[in-house]
Amino acid sequence: MFSIAIHGGAGTILPTELNPEIEARYRASLEAILQAGWLVLEKGGTAIDAVTEAVCVMENDPLFNAGRGAVFTAQGTHELDASLMRGDTLASGAVAGVTGVKNPVRLARMVMENTSHVLLAGAGANAFALEMGVEMMPDSYFFSQLRWDQWQQVRGTTHTLLDHTPEVDVKNALNEKKFGTGGAVAFDMHGNLAAATSTGGMTNKKYGRVGDTPLIGAGTWAHNATAAISCTGDGEYFIRAAAAHDVHCLMQYKGHTLAEAVDLVVNTKLVALGGEGGMIAVDGQGNMVMDMNTPGMYRACRKAGDDLPTVAIFR
Ligand code: ASP
């Protein structure tokens, strides 16, 4: 038995907004990302390798707010966050606010494997990237007209595109509710779980803002006794809810099933706080859940025995 699920962000993704051509592009990308992880698992590879490979492919795809497709900060730069975690040893690695790194998830993996730390941030994390010799990219690599245009809507204001503020017009209000973060969770044939998540954060973010994505327990979590989880959404709320870890706690201490735990966190606890978004999760039997409290979430999953992957966008 083995299985994998991936997400490319949740939010106000409506059938009326995505024309068939764009929808087809998203679906093809989701399949390619899933396939990258699937191939690792199928060959007997590990869950941690599967989620690393899947998230790397997502980081290289400009459609998603991670790596290449990262959103602009208030300074017009790209500050990237990523994390991953192994369910067998609880080893974890994360980076926050790194710049120019092609694949932040690979750097997070190096933090996990080559240091005694869990999270490296900012200039220090970039110095570590240099030491590790990871692939660096010029600013132009991270430029996309869509992200630039999104930034222009809030540039020079105190708003981020996840702010819920009446000054932002209707079009922006729609945009602000899209979260393009990417993540993957996997269960391998050796019985191990792993999760990884990567993001550019929020458009127009300031002051070195860090969201839930690189925080172990908030945006990412894996424990063989329960589940592997990767989140997307309003980062500040996912941090307050310790969302990914809360799923683990509900399973471990209250005996909830994966589906019950995810449902409670996503549709009750986060909603009560005002946090929009979703998560993907897989348990130690290979069961998968992909749930959201928004109209849509880019997502895909596949388990051993499935002829084809499941790819979905709308709720
Ligand atoms: N959770 C991410 C953050 O707050 C955003 C996202 O999911 O797109 O940085």
Outline:
By secondary structure, the protein is an alpha+beta fold.
Q: If you had to describe this structure to a student in words, what would you say it looks like?
A:
With 315 residues, this protein is α+β, with helices and mostly antiparallel strands. It is built from 9 helices and 12 strands. An 8-stranded mixed sheet has the order 4-3-2-6-5-1-11-12. The protein is globular, with a radius of gyration of 18 Å.
- Please indicate the percent range of residues in DSSP E strands (runs of 2 or more): 15-25%
Strand order of the largest sheet: 4-3-2-6-5-1-11-12
List how many beta strands DSSP finds. 12
How far apart, in Å, are the first and last alpha carbons? 27 Å
Structural class comes to: alpha+beta
Shape: globular
Low-confidence spans: pLDDT under 50, at least 5 residues?
163-176
The total count of helices amounts to: 9
Bound compounds, each kind once, are: aspartic acid
Following the backbone from N to C, one meets helices and strands in this order, namely: EHHEEHEHHHEEEEHHHEEEE
Rg calc: 18 Å
- What's the helical proportion of residues? 25-40%
Average pLDDT metric: 93
Summarize the biggest pleated sheet. 8 strands, mixed
